[in-house]
């Protein structure tokens, strides 16, 4: 594989790798039940190999009541029958390795499903041997525990019990209280996400050892690493203090007491020692870390500390938020450059960045930061890919991003499936917001936008299924689909192939120093990558208008060959709408 040749001193193969994220429910359905599955993925591996990606990240495929589409696991050592069997999984893994690619699993251990045997045993009562495997607390004194008529349900849960008696005022990520009262004991358990996702108590060493054992089980099966779900939330301040009341003041912000909590680095170092340290093969670990700061990220990704290889930070996907993620504000390009530039500089000496625009929680980037209309969809999608992939770090491609797939036209709230979106809609409308405006916010930011089925061809169900898709196919699949893209050399697909090939063949794009240019320009994004005697310039237009190239750049780069562009022959003095250029100088 091209990777080896690029190895620098350290054996971090993933520095020159490109990762492709698969959301199994929506990738490819092999048995016509309208839900994607493992055999469907196996049948599409040649497409991924042709694209040139090195690693596949699978969102969860473990047994789950699917309350949060699999991020609520009821058995960590098996495959949900929806997606297939362990034998199907082994076939997929072998087929991935045969093609020289790797596969990482999604590790969801901040919480389990409330149908996991661990939680079933834990809720049996205060004397359960597993009571301390979760965060149980008695009702708050003085709060009216019974709270007839006073308790309000968080999205979809049977009565949360009286919220005023909840042990503290923390709100859940999915709206409503972060506490659920359990009828049997009258006590409350913590769930930062849905009531069917109770948080594990990592203070308990038995919990940690149980997690390390299941991780070793999958590594022994041959997987190449883990993407770790909200792994910076596993350490809570054991006093569980109330949070400050912000905005609508319904719930307190508990984040200061569970984002990068007091023992999180200790736990990740212990995990590294117990799971990864003794293994011959170099694995990939990436921690999803909402709210992580650059300071903490440097600690998490410093190879000398033995925690994780890289983190997913959320700063650049929150720059166009108003009061909430569903309150849309226009992006200021200088904010984006300031944020990504800070992370480039901040992890230049120690640590490593992950690079992403999309995943199964984010709306489609071409609809968000680009222009998904017929004239500029391809060009803005390829511009966004070029800018992201040529930063210093490991790029992640989310399924369909390589086709320039767009947000979907959700006609009504009935079309919305995602628990986070439904929780927000319920709470916002109850708080008196105009349902139509709330739905607009969901259309722009809802996670279902990322989850509409993969568009393989222009046929009725886009080649995704022969059955009825679990989520409607985006009607624009008649023009936006893999078959058409593969057949069109000017497509987003072939541009991503060229981008990935460039990273595999140019050490400067892996290891090169990053320098931001034009930091104050609200229309152009420009930077260089320098390594030994090679320098690359990346210049991109984030607007639908032609923009003159700053004269000094013209002068400096006039004789440097163009190695990648997305708008045909260039005009040295003007950058066309949504155009991206990559020049190389030795
Ligand atoms: O997401 C964590 C997370 O921060 C997102 O839920 C975030 O709140 C939001 O959706 C993005 O703005 C992870 C998984 O990626 C997500 O799918 C799960 O729902 C969540 O954890 C709970 O497991
Ligand atoms: Ca299926």
Q: In a few lines, what is going on in this structure?
A:
The chain is of the alpha/beta class. It is 28% helix and 14% strand.
> What is the strand content?
5-15%
Oligomeric composition of the shown chains: single chain
Considering DSSP H and I runs of 4 or more, what fraction of the residues is helical?
A: 25-40%
Q: What's the alpha carbon Rg, rounded to whole Å?
A: 24 Å
Task: Kindly report how far apart the N and C termini lie.
Answer: 25 Å
Strand order of the largest sheet: 11-10-7-3-2-1-13-12
Question: Describe it for me?
Answer:
It is a single chain. The protein is of the alpha/beta class and 586 residues long. It is 28% helix and 14% strand. The protein has 18 helices and 20 strands. The strands form five sheets. It has an eight-stranded parallel beta sheet, with helices on one face. α6 packs parallel to α7 and α11 runs parallel beside α16. The protein is globular, with a radius of gyration of 24 Å. Bound molecules: 1-O-alpha-D-glucopyranosyl-D-fructose (TEU) and calcium ion (CA). The site of 1-O-alpha-D-glucopyranosyl-D-fructose has 14 residues, from loops.
């Amino acid at each position: 594989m091209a990777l080896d040749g690029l190895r620098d001193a350290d054996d971090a193969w993933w520095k020159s790798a490109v990762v492709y994220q698969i959301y199994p429910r929506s990738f490819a359905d092999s048995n016509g039940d309208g839900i994607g599955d493992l055999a469907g993925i196996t049948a599409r591996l040649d497409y991924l190999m042709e694209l040139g990606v090195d690693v596949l990240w699978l969102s969860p495929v473990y047994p789950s009541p699917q309350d949060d589409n699999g991020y609520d696991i009821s058995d960590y050592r098996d495959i949900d029958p929806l997606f297939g069997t362990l034998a199907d999984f082994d076939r997929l893994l072998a087929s991935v390795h045969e093609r020289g690619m790797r596969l990482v699993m999604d590790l969801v251990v901040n919480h389990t499903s409330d149908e996991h045997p661990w939680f079933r045993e834990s809720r049996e009562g205060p004397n359960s041997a597993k009571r301390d495997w979760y965060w149980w607390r008695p009702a708050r004194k003085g709060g009216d525990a019974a709270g007839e008529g006073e308790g309000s349900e968080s999205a979809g849960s049977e009565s949360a019990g009286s919220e005023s008696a909840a042990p503290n005022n923390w709100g859940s990520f999915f709206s409503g209280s972060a506490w659920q009262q359990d009828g049997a004991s009258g006590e409350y358990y913590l769930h930062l996400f849905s009531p069917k996702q109770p948080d594990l108590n990592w203070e308990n060493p038995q919990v940690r050892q149980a997690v390390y054992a299941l991780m070793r089980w999958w590594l022994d099966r041959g997987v190449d690493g883990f993407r770790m779900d909200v792994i910076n939330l596993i350490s809570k301040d054991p006093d569980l203090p109330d949070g400050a009341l912000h905005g609508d003041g319904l719930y307190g912000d508990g984040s200061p007491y569970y984002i990068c909590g007091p023992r999180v680095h200790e736990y990740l170092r212990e995990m590294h020692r117990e799971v990864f340290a003794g293994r011959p093969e170099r694995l990939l670990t990436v921690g999803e870390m909402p709210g992580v700061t650059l300071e903490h990220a440097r600690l998490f990704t410093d190879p000398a500390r033995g925690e994780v290889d890289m983190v997913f930070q959320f700063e650049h996907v929150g720059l166009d938020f108003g009061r909430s993620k569903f309150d849309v504000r226009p992006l200021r390009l200088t904010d984006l450059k300031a944020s990504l530039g800070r992370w480039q500089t901040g992890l230049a000496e120690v640590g490593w960045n992950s690079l992403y625009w999309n995943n199964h929680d984010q709306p489609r980037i071409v609809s968000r930061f680009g222009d998904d209309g017929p004239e500029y969809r391809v060009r803005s999608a390829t511009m966004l890919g070029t800018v992201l992939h040529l930063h210093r770090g490991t790029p992640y491609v989310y399924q369909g991003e390589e086709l320039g797939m767009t947000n979907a036209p959700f006609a009504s709230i009935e079309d919305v499936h995602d628990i986070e979106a439904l929780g927000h809609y319920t709470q916002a409308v109850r708080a008196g917001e105009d349902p139509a405006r709330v739905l607009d916010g969901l259309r722009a930011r809802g996670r279902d936008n990322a989850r509409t089925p993969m568009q393989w061809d222009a046929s009725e169900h886009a080649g995704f299924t022969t059955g009825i898709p679990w989520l409607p196919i985006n009607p624009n699949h008649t023009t936006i689909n893999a078959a058409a893209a593969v057949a069109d050399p000017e497509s987003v697909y072939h541009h991503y192939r060229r981008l990935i090939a460039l990273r595999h063949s140019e050490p400067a794009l892996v290891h090169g120093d990053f320098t931001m240019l034009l930091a104050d320009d609200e229309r152009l994004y420009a930077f260089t990558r320098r390594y030994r005697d090679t320098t690359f310039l990346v210049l991109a237009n984030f607007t639908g208008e032609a923009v003159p190239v700053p004269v000094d750049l013209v002068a400096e780069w006039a004789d440097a060959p163009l190695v990648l562009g997305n708008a045909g022959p260039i005009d040295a003095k003007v950058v066309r709408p949504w155009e991206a250029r990559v020049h190389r100088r030795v």
